[in-house]
Amino acid sequence: MMYEYRCPQGHVTEEIFSLKDRVDHVQCDLCNGIAGRIVSLPADTKAKWGDSHAYFDRGLGCEVKSSQHKDKILKERDLVPVSEMGSGYVESRMTSSVDEAKAHDKTVSKYNDNVKKFDGDQGRAIVETFPAHEIL
Domain coordinates of the chain in residue numbers? Predict the structure, then answer.
């Protein structure tokens, strides 16, 4: 749990202790004075119930600290939560992946044909397969 402490100079320090290990006084981080534990209000956050403890998410392969942390990880990895997948989402992504694979296969085939056409000259095959005006 997070506990707040205030020193006589008014500095507020936050510390995290288990319920059984909490202490009534800590040293102030700013003035090194003795800070006493104060009663604080619960944080007004967007956290959801059940976000009070971190857990290891096997699907993501890492520790998740809250639902917001999980959303951040999903966004960083370009993943979409199941709750946000609308009707036809999977089919649309599959069709897109298949189209990309077909385009890639077509490019590889064109490159291999150009290597044969130019008697193994890979440099010329690359230039013909990937003309600058198409790339830039």
Answer: 2-38, 55-84, 91-135
Round to whole Å and give the CA distance between 32 and 121: 73
In terms of DSSP H, where are the helices of 35-88? 67-76
Give per-residue pLDDT as tens, 19-39.
677 788 888 888 989 988 887
37 with 15: CB under 8 angstroms? no
Instruction: Write phi, then psi, for 68 (nearest 5 degrees).
Output: -65, -40
Q: What is the CATH number of domain 2-38?
A: 2.20.28.270
Please report which residue ranges of 1-136 form alpha helices under DSSP H. 67-76, 89-117, 122-129, 132-135
Across 58-86, average pLDDT:
87
User: In whole angstroms, what is the distance from residue 5 CA to residue 37 CA?
Assistant: 4
